[in-house]
Amino acid sequence: MSKIRVLLIEDNRLLREGITSMLNDELDIKAVASSGTNGDTFQVAEKLKPHVALVDLGLKNFSSLRIVEQIRKKFPKIHIIVMDIIPANPEVAEYVNAGVSGFILKDATLEDFLQTIRSVHKGMKVLPPTMTTSLFAQVVDYAVKKGKIDLVVKAVRLTKREQEIIKLISEGGSNKDISRELNIAVHTVKSHVHNTLEKLALQTRLQLANFVHSKQASEEALSSSA
Asked: Of the candidates 99, 128, 157, which is a domain's last residue?
């Protein structure tokens, strides 16, 4: 059986040795290396070619974000998972933008911990349920401010009808206006608006309109620079 090769970057020796031992007890996972610093991290990654890197967000002597960015730059095929107690929302947004595929809270069960590794290895994005809402609210806000609306659009799957409705909202259309334009019931429009707001972690129609305008401005800027 081909095993998931894991590189662990954790400066707490007890945690490092304990996590390594637990991973190596699994039939489909192997901790190929563990490190308390980033001194030889990249040499190890080059030699052992891990599939997944587990990075402690709270490294004492090094910037965890910087390490994540360097891993993504040097080894784009490695999936990165960040571990912490409860990351602050702005930090989470930064790590998502840096290319992190998953988060593991240090109070997670062993089953959740292992499942996160397996899911991320398959290419999935994994977030603890307690972080999901606040995370996406932060990511949307971060993307709007940075002009990276396309990141949110790719991450959030809006249906064709939802896209039509938010376009009409951005043009100032009321629920009744949209109902007439699309020939659907008003309550159906309300349902689509509600679902779209939830997907984008927004709270009001105004925020939704601003989101669309920011997306359009970003696309126009890209077109003019091409």
From this structure: 128
Query: What is the structure's pLDDT at 204?
Result: 60
Angle at 79 between CA 75 and CA 81, to 5 degrees: 125
3-state percent helix, strand, coil for the chain, nearest multiple of 5: 55, 15, 30
Beta carbons within 10 angstroms of residue 203's beta carbon: 11
Assess whether 58 and 149 both reside in one domain. no
* Angle at CA of residue 89, ends 86 and 95, nearest 5°: 90
Residue 33 DSSP symbol? E
Edge-to-edge order in the sheet of strand 4-9: 29-35, 4-9, 52-56, 79-84, 102-105
With contact defined as beta carbons under 8 Å apart, do 64 and 87 qualify?
A: no
Would you say 4 and 29 are in contact if contact means Cβ atoms under 8 Å apart?
yes
Q: pTM, whole model, 2 decimals?
A: 0.58
Stronger pLDDT, 59 or 72, i.e. the higher one? 72
Residues 112, 109: Cα–Cα separation, whole Å: 5
Query: Where residue 37 sits, what CATH number does that domain have?
Result: 3.40.50.2300
Distance CA 132, CA 10 (A): 24
Give the residue among 90, 24, 93, 19 at the shortest CA–CA distance from 56. Answer: 19
The dihedral through the CA atoms of 171, 174, 175, 181 has a sign that is negative
Q: Which domain holds residue 216?
A: 134-225
End-to-end CA distance of the chain: 48
